[in-house]
Design a protein that fits this description.
477 residues; mainly beta; Immunoglobulin-like; six-stranded mixed sheet; five-stranded mixed sheet; 5 helices; 33 strands
């Protein structure tokens, strides 16, 4: 159980389980037991034969603080190998830490251990399997859980005094009986999406808020491919943190595009008339095979819109989904405004190395290898025995991702967060571990390789694209 100084979450409203044991306040140890296994669970109000951690979808939430020692005992109760990637955490990628090259055979146990640096960013992170060629299947069948690091953002009085809720967004493809359905090759190339969309394993859970008060809402998109264009009816979303941690200042948004694997933390103000307000996920077209279209606008939620000769991303053709409903319950004892500044974020210094990564595949000549479609980085599919990029510890590099394909690719770099280079030259407002590279576009990011040597991955977080080859290995020495 969490120690008494930790605030209580809205567990009764959201039904999200917790699995944190604080062993000592003077020598903190977060000690967690997880088991990955398949079984019958209730998801979206119906039985489903899914993968889960500790028999739950989503899995238990882990909570820690900078400087904590984390120990996770994972038993593999599946009939296939699995492992864990601690997505977004700045911890060692070697040994029994965040090492995705470790594979746990069926029936065996592995103990993960790592130390969170004392200066680790607070934020919403997550854990999920990362066995190459099995990632999309295992995640889409339910294996995902939240990992929260509490730190300086949680100590700001205006943030700390707000009730907090967590939403884990997942989608599932199930038969009428509840068995998971596997996609065909075209669906894998597009990136699988399931017709059952859930938040914390539920359909449209309630989000309570007090009149004149605030609600802190953490949202994780744990889908393998689905993008979510999130809107809350009649309520602006005040972004205080993204996937890399706290922002320098709050930013008001009417809509947020949440990539697969991405997280966002928003503050919602209860200043509307009492009544239900829907949290919506609106359609987003992320491109299609041999698509022909045009890039529309540059604002939040724009993307590859238009015609597609052989296919479109599934979410482009579906209507708005109701993720949850905000309901007013009572009145806050007092009201307050958010601070204008949250945390200090210093822009990274000028890089010493510049690299370009060409994202391609999924269409055209030469992309069909071994009887299947492949996705590539710099013309090559992933090889676990090959080092694709080498970098020196304590250096800063600038990477440019160039997307020559007709599909959007959300790119993720393990271990070290980065800052997206603003084309206008503005200062960095946040750290990131995910960035969207739209079809036909290019994006530059700047990363500092600090604290840890070893090999880490960079890849597309449409997990079918990763499994089909869009991943590389970076060795930090």
């Amino acid at each position: 159980m969490a120690s008494s100084h930790r605030r209580t979450f809205l567990k009764a409203s959201l039904g999200l389980p917790f699995a944190l044991r604080k062993l000592s306040s003077t020598s903190p140890v977060v000690d967690v037991d997880l088991e990955a296994r398949q079984g019958w669970m209730r998801v979206g109000g119906r039985p489903a034969y899914l993968y889960g951690y500790n028999g739950q979808v989503p899995g238990p939430m882990i909570e820690a603080r900078p400087g904590d020692h984390v120990r996770v005992r994972l038993r593999n109760g599946l009939a296939e190998p699995t492992n864990i990637h601690y997505h977004g955490l700045h911890v060692s990628p070697s040994g029994n830490s965040d090492n995705v090259m470790l594979h746990i055979p069926a029936g065996e146990v592995l103990i993960y251990e790592f130390d969170l640096p004392a200066n680790h960013r607070s934020g919403t992170f997550w854990y999920h399997p990362h066995v190459h060629e099995s990632v999309a299947r295992q995640v889409s069948r339910g294996l995902a859980g939240v990992f929260i690091v509490r730190g300086e953002l949680d100590q700001i009085p205006e943030i700390a005094s707000a009730p907090e809720a967590v939403l884990v967004l997942q989608d599932f493809s199930l038969s009428s009986r509840g068995d998971p359905l596997e996609p065909n090759m075209m669906e894998r190339m597009m990136g699988r999406e399931g017709g059952l969309v859930t938040a914390n394993g539920q359909i449209n859970p309630a989000l309570p808020i007090r009149l004149d008060g605030w609600l802190r809402l953490r949202i994780l998109n744990a889908s393998s491919s689905r993008f979510h264009r999130i809107q809350l009816e009649e309520h602006p979303l005040h972004v205080i943190a993204t996937d890399g941690g706290a922002q320098a200042a709050p930013e008001e948004r009417d809509e947020i595009l949440l990539l697969p694997g991405e997280r966002v933390e928003v503050m919602v103000r209860g200043n509307r008339p009492a009544g239900p307000y829907r949290l919506l996920s609106r359609p987003y077209n992320r491109g299609g095979m041999m698509g022909m279209g045009m890039q529309m606008g540059g604002g939040m939620g724009s993307g590859m819109m238009g015609m597609s000769m052989m296919g479109r991303a599934p979410s482009a053709s579906s209507g708005p989904q109701v993720l949850a409903t905000l309901n007013y319950q009572g009145r806050a004892a007092k009201t307050w405004n958010l601070p204008q500044q949250l945390v200090r974020i210093d822009p990274l210094p000028k890089p010493t190395v510049y690299r370009t990564f060409q994202l391609g595949g999924g269409m055209g000549m030469g992309m069909m290898m071994g009887g299947r479609m492949n996705f590539t980085i710099n013309g090559r599919t992933f090889d676990p025995d090959r080092i694709d990029t080498r970098a020196a510890l304590n250096t800063v590099e600038e990477w440019e991702f160039v997307n020559s394909s007709m599909m959007d690719h959300p790119m993720h770099i393990h271990t070290n967060p980065f800052q997206v280079v603003d084309p206008g030259g503005g200062a960095a407002r946040s750290w990131k571990d995910m960035v969207l590279v739209r079809a036909g576009d290019r994006v530059r990011v700047r990363a500092a390789f600090r604290d840890f040597t070893g090999t880490v991955m960079y890849h597309c977080h449409i997990l079918d694209h990763e499994d089909l080859g869009m991943m590389g290995r970076l060795e930090i020495t």
